[in-house]
Specification:
Blueprint: E1 5-8, E2 11-14, E3 22-25, E4 28-31, E5 36-39, H1 47-56, E6 66-68, H2 74-77, H3 80-86, E7 91-95, H4 99-102, H5 114-120, E8 132-136, E9 141-142, E10 148-152, E11 161-165, E12 170-174, E13 178-180, E14 183-185, H6 195-202, E15 212-215, E16 219-222, H7 226-236
Parallel strand pairs: 5-6, 6-7, 7-8, 12-15
Antiparallel strand pairs: 1-4, 2-3, 4-5, 9-10, 10-11, 11-12, 13-14, 15-16
């Protein structure tokens, strides 16, 4: 039986305007006996980096069975259309509130900051036909990797979701939280339209025994006192 592995893959996006010229982002890869699941798809043009990361693990885009989209932001859905062109058999899931934006029926709600907008927005296209296999509901347990629980965490977008894997005590937070340096923090205030709602969403994590968090911006944070640390983040409120 194949062991379930939940790990971030790092995509180093070339952004000349950024210090060092690179912007790392971290989709999550979940591999199990029956599935190869990608949580989020990077910026437009990330499919070659995704393919490289899969190849390092003896996998390919053709072996992806599912894509779960945490929300509609372009750095999370940017390469979706291209991945579906390469492998049209991938089943795609999202929360219903972000689905029309992801499918291109409505424009994405956020504009990228200046240098990123100039570089990426013209290269983004939504899939040309409705593609989402299913919409995800708060508390739903997905038959993936022995059970993956959906946590609706609105605020960053209305349809933002996080995912919890009980067996691994791992939370895939997406953009509900970020890691800056050594510190776990709440969501990025500059990119979170409803910050109060986003911090209220963090209180849902108290229902789960969390020892490891995967953040899209920052990678992995591990601690035996993670629940207490998240409660403190909520109590302190947004970073000023």
């Amino acid at each position: 039986m194949t062991k379930t592995i939940i790990e971030p893959i790092t995509l180093n996006i070339e952004v000349p305007a950024f210090p060092g010229g690179l912007w790392p982002i971290n989709p999550t890869l979940i591999t199990s006996e029956s599935d190869v699941v990608l949580v989020d798809t990077g910026m437009p043009g990330s499919e070659s980096m995704i393919a490289t990361e899969l190849e390092k693990r003896g996998l390919s885009i053709g072996q992806l069975t599912k894509i779960i989209l945490s929300h509609q932001d372009i750095d999370h859905v940017g390469s979706l259309a291209r991945l579906l062109e390469i492998n049209p058999n991938i089943e795609v899931f999202s929360h219903e509130l972000d689905r029309p934006y992801i499918e291109g029926k409505q424009p994405l709600i956020k504009d990228l900051p200046g240098p990123l907008a100039d570089q990426f927005e013209e290269g983004y296209t939504a899939p040309s036909v409705p593609f989402i296999k299913g919409t995800l509901a708060d508390g739903e347990e997905l038959d993936i990797a022995g059970g993956l629980i959906v946590i609706h965490t609105p605020g960053h977008t209305e349809g933002h979701i996080s995912l919890y894997h009980p067996a691994a005590k791992t939370l895939i937070a997406a953009d509900a939280m970020i890691i800056r340096g050594p510190k776990l923090q709440g969501p990025n205030p500059m990119q979170t339209p409803d910050l109060d709602k986003a911090y209220q969403s963090l209180t849902k994590f108290a229902a789960f025994d969390i020892k490891r968090v995967v953040c899209y911006h920052g990678g992995v944070y591990e601690s035996e006192t993670l629940n207490e640390e998240i409660a403190q983040i909520v109590a302190n409120g947004p970073v000023k």
